[in-house]
Inverse folding.
């Protein structure tokens, strides 16, 4: 029995040529989260992460704040879907960089539509697994936690896998899972209670480490 803490990576570089790296603020969010866990006396018996750079940088920042040497188990099934491939599956023409509010909203309207069609098996984005295989990559990580660990376990991933994990244990519809995905905040914490048989949702998308006025402008989504 234990608690699984699912952490979304810190703010990445949305709109840049290389999204898969943390912004300066993303690094600060990650260190701050580690400091929060240290001040609360929360220690981790195991760590799982995806293999993406933003996952590793987030864990490194948390480890710095925790004053802790992390030894993660890398789990490729916790990697994010390819949002560009999802959009290109339904909109093959090039898009302008989302550097205005309207282009930003347009990007996420297309992403929502593409995710809906991918989940329904209507489109197969280039280089991506089927949605069923994506879910299996996430659920297999949850099963591994249940069967191999107890106490506090840390999982660092992205919005897609974390919302999929929540949807999996709650049995939500694909549409609800998409809404969970598009609302999740950078460096947010979700908690599952787990036993060898099941996971149960305790909290979703919380920011306890940023719950002070001086961190109000540290809250980001992309």
């Amino acid at each position: 029995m234990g608690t699984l803490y699912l952490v979304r990576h810190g703010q990445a570089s949305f709109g840049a040529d290389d999204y898969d790296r943390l912004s300066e603020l993303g690094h600060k969010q990650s260190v701050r989260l580690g400091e929060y866990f240290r001040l609360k006396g929360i220690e981790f018996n195991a760590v799982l992460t995806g293999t993406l750079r933003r996952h590793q940088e987030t864990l490194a920042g948390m480890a710095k704040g925790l004053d802790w040497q992390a030894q993660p188990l890398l789990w490729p099934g916790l990697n994010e879907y390819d949002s560009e491939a999802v959009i290109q599956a339904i909109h093959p023409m090039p898009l302008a960089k989302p550097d205005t509010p309207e282009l930003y909203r347009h990007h996420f309207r297309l992403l929502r539509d593409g995710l809906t069609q991918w989940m329904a098996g209507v489109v197969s984005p280039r280089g991506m697994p089927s949605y069923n295989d994506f879910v299996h990559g996430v659920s297999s990580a949850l099963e591994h936690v249940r069967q191999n660990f107890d106490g506090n376990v840390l999982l660092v991933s992205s919005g897609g896998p974390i919302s999929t994990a929540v949807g999996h244990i709650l049995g939500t519809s694909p549409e609800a899972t998409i809404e969970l995905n598009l609302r999740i905040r950078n460096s947010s914490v979700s908690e599952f209670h787990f036993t060898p048989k099941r996971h149960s949702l305790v909290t979703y998308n919380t920011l306890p480490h940023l719950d002070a006025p001086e961190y109000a402008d540290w809250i980001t989504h992309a």
Notes: The mean pLDDT is 95.
